[in-house]
Amino acid sequence: MDARFNLFDSPTAVKVAKRFHNAGSAIAQSTLPKSTQELVNLRASQINGCAFCTDMHTKEATAAGETPLRLHLVAVWREATVFTGAERAALALTEEGTRIADAHHGVSDATWAEVREHYDDDQIGALVSLIAFINAANRFNVIVRNPGGSYEPGMLATALD
């Protein structure tokens, strides 16, 4: 399977991707735990059917030391015992923030209260930004049908630096 369009062949898309990647660096450097960041990225990518991002974030999480068990259970996190309360709150926010069109009121007050219980204001800012960013990245890749399977850890950062 090949992508229907290579975004790196478009000078405008490359400029956007570089700026997008640089803006995302603020999230990566935040105090939001890296493991939480990868779980959020993976879950949103699964929901959105983004093969490229699912591949990338699974491999980046693995390279950062995440366990295969937790990665396998992200899709069914509500029924899994391997996630902390904070991670569960982040995953709930990810699902509700990703499925905005599916819920009349968007993110529920109950989910927001759980997030507030586990994260400080800066971490919440990073978490909300991360959810918005990964949803945008998923759309780039789903629109052009970027396939998953060939990503290597660090590959995207190298391409955009």
Automatic annotation (TrEMBL):
<feature type="domain" description="Carboxymuconolactone decarboxylase-like">
    <location>
        <begin position="21"/>
        <end position="96"/>
    </location>
</feature>
<protein>
    <submittedName>
        <fullName>AhpD family alkylhydroperoxidase</fullName>
    </submittedName>
</protein>
<dbReference type="InterPro" id="IPR003779">
    <property type="entry name" value="CMD-like"/>
</dbReference>
<dbReference type="GO" id="GO:0051920">
    <property type="term" value="F:peroxiredoxin activity"/>
</dbReference>
<dbReference type="InterPro" id="IPR029032">
    <property type="entry name" value="AhpD-like"/>
</dbReference>
<dbReference type="Pfam" id="PF02627">
    <property type="entry name" value="CMD"/>
</dbReference>
<dbReference type="InterPro" id="IPR004675">
    <property type="entry name" value="AhpD_core"/>
</dbReference>
